[in-house]
Specification:
- The protein is α+β, with helices and mostly antiparallel strands.
- The protein has a domain of 80 residues.
- Helices cover 41% and strands 21% of the residues.
- The protein is built from seven helices and six strands; from the N terminus they run αααβββααβααββ.
- Strands 3-2-1-4-6-5 form a six-stranded antiparallel sheet.
- β1 and β2 form a beta hairpin.
- The longest helix is centred in the first third of the chain and has 35 residues.
- It starts with a helix and ends with a strand.
- The relative contact order is 0.08.
Length: 227
């Protein structure tokens, strides 16, 4: 005698078996379908495309000519500077300035937690939103900040010229840290006064490697934070 419960379990097992069989059939058929659509490829006919690595660029290496031709505007260095200065980084998200008075636009989920910290008793800002009729009605979010990238500078040649005279690996490491520290102080002094606080970051882009020496390009980025 089969109970209602055991019959239900048997039905579930049959459905699971059907799903597994369907998935297996798809896994077998999809590669064949893909090959039929693409056809055989002769390796010697494969050529690198212009955007094989995607269409995301840092500001100092953006293809201005491509921007101008594709989108029909003058993608000048001045335009890229305005675009860079409008872009912000807030905790966990990106954002941008949308007014000369510091109004910032971002996605709703990026500030959901911050909104609750400035919500007053009886308010439901997450549902109703918030509108300040004047600057003095704006509410400061405790601990919140926005990073603005104000400068990018390639300091590779400056660092390499100092490393070339070092006699050992230990001396190279010491000279390298001293040079980077000096560059950091110079750049921070050069851009001082444009924000509440400062941060310095180094990025290396590997170009080639030969023998015992690896060559890279090092760029320094200077950001100012406003809270």
């Amino acid at each position: 005698m089969r109970t209602k419960k055991s019959g239900s379990l048997l039905g579930q097992h049959r459905r699971i078996a059907s799903y597994v069989a369907l998935l297996a059939a798809l896994l077998i058929s999809v590669p064949d379908l893909a090959r039929a659509q693409v056809g055989p490829v002769a390796p010697d006919t494969v050529r690198a495309g212009r955007f094989d690595f995607g269409k995301m660029w840092t500001f100092e290496y953006a293809p201005s000519e491509y921007f101008s031709q594709t989108y029909g505007f003058d993608a000048s260095p001045e335009w890229f500077e305005r675009a860079r200065l409008s872009v912000l980084r807030i905790p966990g998200c990106s954002a941008s300035f949308v007014s000369p008075n510091g109004l910032v636009a971002t996605n709703h989920h990026c500030v959901r937690g911050a909104v609750t910290r400035v919500t007053q008793e009886g308010e439901t800002l997450l549902d109703d939103g918030f509108y300040a009729r004047a600057l003095e009605e704006e509410r400061r979010i405790p601990g919140h900040y926005a990073d603005q990238l104000i400068a990018i500078e390639d300091v590779s040649d400056e660092v390499f010229s100092a490393l070339d005279v070092a006699a050992s690996e230990e001396e190279r490491e010491r000279v390298r840290e001293e040079m980077l520290g000096s560059i950091r102080e110079r750049l921070l002094e050069q851009h001082a006064g444009q924000g509440d606080s400062w941060s310095w970051r180094r990025r290396s882009r590997w170009l080639s490697s030969g023998g015992t020496r690896t060559t890279s390009r090092t760029r320094a980025t200077i950001s100012t934070s406003r809270s």
